[in-house]
Amino acid sequence: MVQRRDNVADGAIDLWQRLATELVVIIGEGGFQSLFSRSVQLTSAAFPWIAPIHSRSPIESQLLALKASLAGGEFPDATEASIYLLATFCDVLAGLIGDTLTDSILRSAWGDNVQDVSDKEVLK
């Protein structure tokens, strides 16, 4: 079971690193850190075992903290929390810059196979 949890954590961190690379160019490291920290805070209401992340921590530190939280969770919970966090982040970002630009950034980060993760249906 540990390998499955590690795979969830590793896969999630890969997605976050690619997204951070795209967004830092646009909103800077501080902007990404703040959005990510806020999204973790919102997500921790539904998944209290996710460790809080300080908004001024370097991106690498924030992602390591998330990886540790996901790797420590049960497989189904880690998967659900990872999806919830991504959807929350995309919703926060879309609220600031709009759905079209958010989708464009996600496609740049993750490729053309990205579904519209800013769609509220992901969270239901």
What structural keywords apply?
disordered C terminus; 124 residues; mainly alpha; globular; 4 helices
What would you say this structure looks like, in words?
It is built from 4 helices and no strands. It has one domain (2-123). It has helices spanning 2-44, 59-72, 75-97, 99-110. By secondary structure, the chain is mainly α. Residues 116-124 have low confidence and may be disordered. The radius of gyration is 13 Å and the shape is globular. The longest helix has 43 residues, at 2-44. Helix 1 (2-44) crosses helix 3 (75-97). 74% of the residues lie in helices and 0% in strands.
Secondary-structure blueprint:
Blueprint: H1 2-44, H2 59-72, H3 75-97, H4 99-110
Helix pairs in contact: 1-2, 1-3, 1-4, 2-3, 3-4
The helix content, as a percent range, equals: over 70%
**Ends apart, CA distance between termini:** 27 Å
Strand and helix order: HHHH
Instruction: Tell me about the largest β-sheet.
Output: none
Beta-strand percentage range: under 5%
Principal-axes shape call: globular
**Unreliable sequence segments:** 116-124
CA radius of gyration: 13 Å
Tally the helices: what do you get? 4
- Average pLDDT confidence is 85
Structural class: mainly alpha
* Count of structural domains: 1
The strand count comes to 0
